[in-house]
Amino acid sequence: MTSTSDTAERPGGPKPVEVDAVVLGAGVAGLYQLHQLREQGLNVRAFEAGSDVGGTWYWNRYPGARFDSEGYIYQYLFDEQLYKDWSWSEKFPGQPEIERWLHYVTDRLDLRKDITFGTRITSAHFDEDRNRWDIRTDRGDVVDAQFFVTCGGMLSAPVTDQFEGQESFTGRLVYTSSYPKEGVDVRGRRVGVVGIGATGIQVVQTIAPDVGHLTVFARTPQYVLPMKNPSYGPDEHAWYKSRYARLRQTIPHTFTGFEYDFEHSWYDLTAEQRRAVLEETYADGSLKLWLAGFAEMFFYEDVSEEVSEFVREKMRARLKDPELIETLVPTDYGFGTHRVPLERGYLEVYHQDNVDLVNCRENPIARIRPEGVELADGTVVELDVIILATGFDAGTGALSRIDIRGRDGRSLAEEWGRDIRTTMGLAKHGYPNLLTTATPMAPSAALCNMTTCLQQQTEWITRAVAEVRARGKSVIEPTEHGEEEWVSHHEETAQATLVPKTHSWYMGSNVPGKPRRMLSYIGGVGTYRQKCEEEAAAGYPKFAIS
Length: 546
Known about the structure:
Layout: E1 17-24, H1 28-39, E2 44-47, H2 56-59, H3 71-74, H4 80-84, H5 95-108, E3 115-116, E4 121-127, E5 132-137, E6 142-150, E7 172-175, E8 190-194, H6 198-207, E9 213-218, E10 225-226, H7 234-241, H8 244-250, H9 271-283, H10 288-292, H11 301-319, H12 322-328, E11 342-343, H13 346-349, E12 355-359, E13 365-369, E14 372-375, E15 380-382, E16 385-388, H14 397-400, E17 403-405, H15 412-418, E18 434-436, H16 450-470, E19 476-478, H17 480-495, H18 525-537, E20 543-545
Parallel strand pairs: 1-2, 1-6, 2-3, 4-17, 6-18, 7-16, 8-9, 8-16, 9-12, 10-11
Antiparallel strand pairs: 4-5, 5-6, 13-14, 14-15, 19-20
């Protein structure tokens, strides 16, 4: 084990603290990664920008924030007692309960002592002479580490400052991605919500009963599925906890890391049988229609259109009004090729007399004014509160906003600004001992239960670190050829689907100038896991260990 040592003070800076590994982030991935590396006997320090653990569930505390994965499959599966000693109050728990669960895990594993809170890593430079990372923070920390493991999250770098004049608004303007802990009082006030992705939908349906007037600014319509969220008591707890062994065995190997999987082939069924499957999965009140309906909808236009029309039909029946249907029901992309939100009474909100809907495809936001939002046609919507649910720089943003430099001073932000490439989403050629989770070309929030994927990715990293140490070596780095092999496989897999034909954060389309590429691996969680296992079993042929 390496301990804090009296290493020479770097010119012009404080004396560095020497550790074996630095972990960026204390969310679902970071907590488990810290635990695993400590179990190896490594001296590890984690840095977290927030004042406590939670990651996504620390920052996203906006009204209505909750799981759309069932709580009992979002848990860690590496420890049976850790799993069984926590009981959820409902099928899809809300943010406060999720945050309490992560506190429970943190305290149970005694992780806080190795986490520095309220601190952002601002730079990480690889020292080729010493084969170590020089890592610095916004609070002046200087850390010398062999391994730099990033657990910054797939959706953690918010897209901000999109609108001219935001700073001039005299009311309260907040982002859902950094919602104030104390909340925002919207009772009886004129509130505008910008964005109707999964987050905007949760906000709209939650605050609608309390506001004086609500204006929703909608650009891209979303296919939505109704959530059924029963309360859980002793019987439900006993039921899902009794299935722990089965869940641990099956969840990591399904297509999306959920407990359900695709069971039907579209072309093997009659029209009546297909409709029955659609109705059954829709009625489940979960993401089952999307993630366990028909896999063919991701590949074939005719299947995509039929499934999409089924969901449109359900939405139209609830919306009724032609103008609402025109603004809120998608027609230019297929169901499931964008993120599919769950909702509870969201569509019915637009029938309230105190709710207005602005179609921003026809009348975009021109600027923010002191009194509210000005539209392209000159209309000014006067507001007291603006809530921006405007998305993230997915996949790359968490790391490209840090000055990360590898061999020969190469910049990760500059490289990803030209072409987004990784090796299995776990590492990057030219950046030795930089090991990554929730980055491009691994399964992630696009088509994966995140806890399933993050557990697998951190476990692979832990095994790779152990392999380097067992060989008596100091560095692991993808080869250029190994990375090219994975990028080619990723592209071939993605291009076989309909997703690259769409425009969404899945393809980086929501960030101007971002290279267009399918950010998440879409070949299936189980398939990805198998390929990772094969890589390790074969001695890491895509990597150089030296």
